[in-house]
Design a protein that fits this description.
The chain is 33% helix and 17% strand. It has 13 helices and 18 strands. It binds zinc ion. Its cofactor is Zn(2+). The chain crosses the membrane at residues 428-449. It is a single-pass membrane protein.
């Protein structure tokens, strides 16, 4: 009888403690969001109360140096591998691989050949090897089979799926019986409108406001689903955008015969593969052809670009100055806004904000590299990083020293329309959980002591056995 009582007592106590304090032991969760083409300074251009809210209660990095070329696929793959494009192999949105004799093209969505992606092991694979689940919502590369793996849950790319539906699915993944600890969420704007309108166009203002509303929607849904305090939300982007002009055009046909080379990738950085025996002629014709065009032989590409040591990088690389467009001839398409330029240009830089238990509050940091995100993600998720080009030391000041326990706080409502009442209800529920759990433990303890006092004392041997038993279960 005594033995049974003790077993029940210890089991219930252990269970209660484990439920009550499970928040401390929970694994960290991350929701990484990319708003494609969201330039770092868009948040200063129009009121963005939801971005402000993240900054006030989380961290903000003012200058994020992304990787060259400053285009979508190379940068998104860097964010999830921590590698420069010359190491992860997605060196452009459009590529030609002479070894495979295959092309890769974002424009035609010809991106599903696994071999293009397999120079690196992206974070979702490492996360899954460590025994966790990943959810990927249209993040570039996540619907490609890489090293025989897909993310645990993912949705194939389909631009017609609304932001709200993408958020709903991500939240569902966080709440599954076997939940995810890492979600990757991608949204196409403001990149698309930035290309069409040009970033200097006042019509971009409502586009930026719309992204802020979308962020507000995401925050509210996380609060409603009681995930706001436990999920580390990271908001970033792949690149910025700069204004282009019909006056700033470089026409290649004016300098070289189009039959003498293959033109790969799009403005403003274009890869040139000369036909057999044409290299010297092409290089000589393009070099110094235009004051706003820089021409590199592959071996002369500056080290700071980290863009030399991969066989998909072509023998000649041509790069336009900021705001200039390289086209074949006047029949080619032209965009009012573009990116891809030198990653030293601030217009090419994305934003970086984060909020959650792993991050400090109201901290602003001057700079980081986009390669630093990967070791940061691995550190928070407590998974071993693969070799990378980033530095955890460069960003660890963003992290809270001890992952804080969720404590209800009574900060004032920020200047926005985020419904904080949901947040307060959630915090209150947690506080009540801790309180009730503690009461149950104390009551059990009192009943147990009373029981011991009133029952016949067992022998020393029996007592030791009974005390030892629960320890064996724990
Ligand atoms: Zn992009």
């Amino acid at each position: 009888m005594d033995s049974k009582f003790c077993r029940v007592f210890f089991t219930l106590s252990a269970l209660t403690f484990s439920i009550t304090f499970s928040h401390q032991q929970d694994e960290q969760k991350i929701l990484l969001v990319s708003f494609d083409g969201f330039r770092w300074d868009y948040i200063y251009r129009v009121p963005t109360p939801h971005f402000d809210y993240i900054m006030e209660y989380g961290v903000h990095v003012k200058k994020v140096t992304n990787v060259f070329v400053t285009t979508t696929y190379p940068n998104h793959y860097t964010l999830v591998t921590g590698l420069y494009p010359e190491s992860h192999g997605i060196i452009a949105n459009d590529m030609y691989d002479s070894t495979l004799n295959e092309t890769f093209s974002l424009e035609d969505m010809k991106i599903y050949d696994s071999e293009f992606w397999e120079d690196a092991i992206p974070i979702w694979i490492t996360n899954q090897i460590a025994g966790h689940n990943t959810g990927a919502m249209m993040w570039p590369g996540t619907d490609v089979k890489i090293h025989e793996e897909f993310p645990t849950y993912y949705m194939p790319y389909n631009e017609s799926v609304s932001f709200e539906d993408r958020v709903a699915k991500v939240i569902e993944w966080f709440k599954l019986k076997k939940p995810i600890n890492l979600a990757l969420l991608y949204w196409e704007d403001p990149d698309e409108m930035g290309h069409n309108l040009g970033p200097d166009n006042p019509l971009m203002d409502p586009v930026i406001s719309d992204i802020d509303s979308k962020l507000g929607y995401l925050i509210k849904e996380l609060m409603k689903e009681k995930l706001w305090n436990t999920v580390n939300l990271i908001i970033t982007s792949d690149h910025g955008m700069t204004q282009c002009s019909g006056e700033k055009i470089i026409e290649l046909d004016q300098y070289v015969n189009p039959n003498d080379y293959f033109l790969i990738d799009h403005s403003p950085v274009r890869a040139i593969l000369p036909k057999k025996g044409k290299f010297d002629m092409i290089y000589a014709a393009l070099n110094n052809a235009h004051p706003n065009l820089t021409v590199y032989k592959k071996e002369d590409i500056p080290e700071r670009f980290h863009y030399k040591h991969h066989h998909r990088i072509q023998p000649i690389l041509i790069m336009a100055d900021k705001g200039w467009t390289i086209i074949q001839n006047r029949s080619s398409t032209f965009m009012l806004g573009n990116h891809g330029y030198d990653n030293e240009f601030s217009d090419m830089h994305p934003l970086f904000l984060a909020h959650g238990p792993a991050f400090k509050k109201n901290i602003s940091k001057d700079s980081m590299n986009s390669t630093d995100l990967y070791p940061l993600l691995c550190h928070i998720l407590d998974i071993p990083p693969m070799p990378h080009n980033g530095s955890l030391a460069n960003v660890e000041e963003l992290l809270s020293e001890i992952v804080p326990i969720e404590i209800p706080h009574s900060r004032t409502t920020p200047q926005n329309d985020v419904n904080l009442s949901i947040y307060k209800v959630q915090s209150y529920a947690y506080f009540m959980g801790v309180f009730l759990g503690s009461v149950i433990v104390i009551v059990f303890l009192l009943v147990f002591l009373k029981h011991l006092t009133h029952s016949q004392m067992p022998t020393i041997q029996e007592r030791n056995a009974e005390i030892a038993q629960p320890l064996l279960w724990s």
